[in-house]
């Protein structure tokens, strides 16, 4: 207790955990179970913080949740389920389902809580998506959850116990009507029966209704209201003036609509499930893709309830490949995200820890590859010597991950008082001070140590091999549709030789050869000015209008079709692609659609770089003549007479100046390159990579109702202000290393609004709007987030 009190009174009280000389998972789990037996909820939380698991079975076959239920400690039970990740659907060694051990009133309450939590996670994800089509795909998942929830029999021990491995029953597959399993709680003659397949008919009817909703309604987040109107055949008005008192408990309006949908589905279940419609292959494909998408989301977001529904109601095979690009099963993806509770649940349903992905990796490989040692240790037993195609055993990848982490200099400690942890400005200042402490304010030394040199060594090899493999994929894609034949342009920091930390991010454009704005290219491109009121609302004055001259191109050019069709065909080529070098492979999430193309996830397992988790953005672009009405800023190379345009997910077109920018930045002289890299270094100091451990990520976030990332200027903002700086400051002497701080201050001041206080004689800086250097009249300006804090930090360094 003295150890705990000392931690709680220290500078990092939020890290307080139970004292243990070593992080032994099994010992800590046994201790957590004992605390749950005594109803010592707070102690259990401290033990979990140290590494104990609320879902792992002890040697006696119990979980902490079962023990708390047996002891009648309902407050502990609620805390274990709501706040510590305990699973209501994970049986103990006797086959007892925790949900069935709860009192009836608690069952309903805990189930509703689980449904609310799953809805909120999916709704939050929906809010981050910008594409109407992707929002619609997520809406299918949310409707599927509502349908399965209605169909589930949560209170039948038969329907909720794990089934035997599907491999033991060759007749069982995704479309089977029934499946069987021995129940450990019933007679040996008793069998487990899945609910009927009526849920499938209900979902398909709902999918037909969702298809009828305009894409705009998904972009405006009004789809749920429209779906309810369609289902109930009466208009549902969404009253945004409803007061908090009129909303039931803590349910917001969208949650209330979701629960209304569930109630409406109950009422209409018979009529919806008895609808007779011809078998539609397109709808069947939609069902299968939605099931896979739902299970992937469960693995990524730790959705315990929806996972249980997918296995017990929808009968999804537990070892089904749900990422066809990397060949990953649910257990692979859960391992890559370090979801220990979901891992225990999948193993209880007989998920195989020996199944291999396309690169010959077990789930243990994936766990260690992403730094989740506790999950890796659970999955590694019996597979310690299993080697992937790259020649690595599971624990080799844990060593590689730790080296990768060191490359990024990510610290687990930060000098910030506890009361400032949720102050984004204080966190920003703390990270900048951490940089000062680490590098002693020596930008030249920091840049020299952290800069990636693509002109030699394994970094050059990574870039070369990756480029060649992408060219092969594009060649395969052109065979599917000759319209996709194009030239690959590698752009961004890897092409400019301006990358920091590791060679793990690449930006690629594909210049399509058979569609262009030149004569014979089939397109007509023109500048169209907005009316003044529209321009003021959007923040820019002109839009790019593209029309098809050739009728055959109309279906590609209309709306967001070109980016969708290109991405879909590119994805098809990835599913059976064979790498020529085993050091390179696909990893989860495999692919992700972006606003203007597709992002692909790779892993590199080499010698200089034992592990790299590489993200490559692929964007299809079209070449057009430089329009006479389009501005040519002074930094534009004089011989440039062409521009590129890209299609966005919301159906608009925008200019792409990446090739021109790359040409300018690739040719930067030494001193200017140093200034740019030093500025970039301060920006990336405020950012954290997606694969970083959770406790490290939390240092780059603050809590305000939910977690937000601390603000930082975007990379393109730095490029725009730096180009403006080079235009205005032409004297090479002003770029000398002796004036490094001065130039950096000047660059960041361009991201700010300056306010001079006459009374005090002081100057204050605020976030300012930054217009694009190229095509500023066709792009919305961006905000220089955190630029005032960076500027103040630089001025303090300059003064000292």
Automatic annotation (TrEMBL):
<keyword id="KW-0677">Repeat</keyword>
<feature type="repeat" description="ANK">
    <location>
        <begin position="60"/>
        <end position="93"/>
    </location>
</feature>
<dbReference type="Pfam" id="PF00023">
    <property type="entry name" value="Ank"/>
</dbReference>
<keyword id="KW-0040">ANK repeat</keyword>
<feature type="repeat" description="ANK">
    <location>
        <begin position="326"/>
        <end position="358"/>
    </location>
</feature>
<dbReference type="InterPro" id="IPR036770">
    <property type="entry name" value="Ankyrin_rpt-contain_sf"/>
</dbReference>
<protein>
    <submittedName>
        <fullName>Uncharacterized protein</fullName>
    </submittedName>
</protein>
<dbReference type="InterPro" id="IPR002110">
    <property type="entry name" value="Ankyrin_rpt"/>
</dbReference>
């Amino acid at each position: 207790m003295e150890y705990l009190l000392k931690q709680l009174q220290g500078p990092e009280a939020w890290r307080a955990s139970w004292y243990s000389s070593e992080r032994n998972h099994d010992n800590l789990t046994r201790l957590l179970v004992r605390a749950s037996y005594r109803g010592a909820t707070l102690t259990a939380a401290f033990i979990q913080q140290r590494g104990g698991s609320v879902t792992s079975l002890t040697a006696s076959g119990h979980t902490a949740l079962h023990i708390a239920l047996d002891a009648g400690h309902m407050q502990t039970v609620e805390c274990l389920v709501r706040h510590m990740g305990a699973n209501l659907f994970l049986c103990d060694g006797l086959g007892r389902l925790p949900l069935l051990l709860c009192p009836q009133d608690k069952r309903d309450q805990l189930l509703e809580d689980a449904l609310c939590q799953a809805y909120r996670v999916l709704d939050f994800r929906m809010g981050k998506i910008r594409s109407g089509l992707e929002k619609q795909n997520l809406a299918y998942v949310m409707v599927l959850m509502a349908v399965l929830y209605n169909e589930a029999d949560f209170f039948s021990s038969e329907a909720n116990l794990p089934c035997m491995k599907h491999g033991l029953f060759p007749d069982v597959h995704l479309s089977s009507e029934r499946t069987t399993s021995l129940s450990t709680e019933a007679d040996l003659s008793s069998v487990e029966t899945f609910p009927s397949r009526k849920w499938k008919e209900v979902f398909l009817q709902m999918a037909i209704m969702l298809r009828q909703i305009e894409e705009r309604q998904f972009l405006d987040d009004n789809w749920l209201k429209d779906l309810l109107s369609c289902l109930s055949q009466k208009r549902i008005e969404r009253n945004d003036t409803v007061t908090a008192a009129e909303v039931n408990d803590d349910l917001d309006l969208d949650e209330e609509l979701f629960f209304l949908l569930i109630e409406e589905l109950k009422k209409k279940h018979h009529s919806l499930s008895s609808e007779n419609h011809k078998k539609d292959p397109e709808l069947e494909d939609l069902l299968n893709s939605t099931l896979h998408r739902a299970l992937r989301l469960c693995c990524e977001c730790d959705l315990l309830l929806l996972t249980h529904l997918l296995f017990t109601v929808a009968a999804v095979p537990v070892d089904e490949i749900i990422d066809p690009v990397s060949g990953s099963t649910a257990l692979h993806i859960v391992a890559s995200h370090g979801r220990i509770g979901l891992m225990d649940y999948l193993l209880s349903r007989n998920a195989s820890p020996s199944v291999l992905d396309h690169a010959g990796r077990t789930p243990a490989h994936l766990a260690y590859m992403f730094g989740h040692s506790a999950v890796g240790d659970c999955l590694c037993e019996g597979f310690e010597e299993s080697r992937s195609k790259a020649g690595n055993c599971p624990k080799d990848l844990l060593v590689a991950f730790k080296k990768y982490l060191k490359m990024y200099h990510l610290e687990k400690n930060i000098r910030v008082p506890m009361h400032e942890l949720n102050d984004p400005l204080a966190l920003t200042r703390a990270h900048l001070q951490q940089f000062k402490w680490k590098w002693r304010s020596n930008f030249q030394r920091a840049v020299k140590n952290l800069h990636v040199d693509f002109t030699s060594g394994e970094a050059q090899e990574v870039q070369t091999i990756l480029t060649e493999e992408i060219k092969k994929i594009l060649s395969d894609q052109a065979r599917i549709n000759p319209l996709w034949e194009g030239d690959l342009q590698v752009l961004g920091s890897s092409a400019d030789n301006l990358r920091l930390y590791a060679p793990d991010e690449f930006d690629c454009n594909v210049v399509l050869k058979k569609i262009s704005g030149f004569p014979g290219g089939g397109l007509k491109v023109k500048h169209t000015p907005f009316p003044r009121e529209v321009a003021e609302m959007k923040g820019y004055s002109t839009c790019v209008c593209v029309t098809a001259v050739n009728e055959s191109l109309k279906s590609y050019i209309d709306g967001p079709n070109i980016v969708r069709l290109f991405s879909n065909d590119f994805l098809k080529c990835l599913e059976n692609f064979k790498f020529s070098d085993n050091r390179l492979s696909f990893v989860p999430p495999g692919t992700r659609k972006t606003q203007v193309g597709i992002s692909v996830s790779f892993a590199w397992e080499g010698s200089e770089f034992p592990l790299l988790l590489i993200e490559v953005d692929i964007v299809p672009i079209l070449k057009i003549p430089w329009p006479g009405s389009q501005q040519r800023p002074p930094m534009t190379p004089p011989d440039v007479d062409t521009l590129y345009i890209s299609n966005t997910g919301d159906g608009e077109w925008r200019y792409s100046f990446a090739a021109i920018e790359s040409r300018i930045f690739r040719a930067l002289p030494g001193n200017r390159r140093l200034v740019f890299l030093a500025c970039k270094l301060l920006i990336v100091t405020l950012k954290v990579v997606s694969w970083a451990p959770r406790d490290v990520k939390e240092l780059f976030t603050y809590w305000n109702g939910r977690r937000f990332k601390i603000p930082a200027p975007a990379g393109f903002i730095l490029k725009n202000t730096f180009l403006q700086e080079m235009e205005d400051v032409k004297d090479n002497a002003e770029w000398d290393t002796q004036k490094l701080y001065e130039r950096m201050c000047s660059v960041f001041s361009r991201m700010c609004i300056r306010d001079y206080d006459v009374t005090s004689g002081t100057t204050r800086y605020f976030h300012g709007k930054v217009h694009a250097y190229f095509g500023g009249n066709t792009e919305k300006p961006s905000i220089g987030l955190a630029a005032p804090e960076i500027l103040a930090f630089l001025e303090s360094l300059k003064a000292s």
